[in-house]
Amino acid sequence: MAEHPPCTILIVGHGPSCVVTLVGLLHRQGYTVVTVGNSALAWVQLPVRQYAVILCDLDIPEIDGYTFYALLQQHYPSLCPRVIFLTNDTTEVPGAAFPQWGGHPWLSKTCGVTEVLCAIAQVLHAIDKPHAAWDIRG
Questions:
Q1: Which pTM does this prediction carry?
Q2: Domains, the chain
């Protein structure tokens, strides 16, 4: 079991095998996980719950991960430090194409368990209250 208070993670993911693998891993670590298959559904979920971390696939239907993050910056800036990006493109560091990431962790969809858990721990450690999600509802 991970050494953290229970928290909820939103996975905005495309590709059922990657999402299923992440959900299983995160449940085993004690996290509550909400999954959506596209960014339009993610946008609906944001005001419904508090999320400690958002795992966002760059290649998602409706609005791509880059645009989704830009919208977060405009409408829910308090959630931006909680984003971890997922990508299939392992040939280029995503930050080079999207400098606004400002040091956000990113993961290859083929990464291992350790990398996923380390990225989540990095985000939880970097925010002011490591175990609490920011409430964007008011």
A1: 0.81
A2: 8-126 (3.40.50.2300)
